[in-house]
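QA checklist item 7 of 12: single-chain prediction sanity check.
[x] sequence parsed
[x] length recorded as 74
[x] structure emitted
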Amino acid sequence: MAVDDERFAVLRDLPFKVRAEIADLLEQDKPIGAIYALRDAIGFENIGIADGKKVIDGVRELSDEDRKAILERP
């Protein structure tokens, strides 16, 4: 998967603090928490659970290097 994949565009626009929270939740193996953190940041009315799950599942499938490139850049 490519880091510039359109699925991850929603993450690129999030503040670093939110992306770091999502990264921490994924590291703790808490994908549901990561989905809710994503939805909370974007607005529950703007992204459904299924779409949030697709984004988070996609991030989980990335290599560690690619995941860091998306979630941990300042």
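[x] summary fact logged: Residues 49-61 form the longest helix (13 residues).
[ ] second reviewer sign-off
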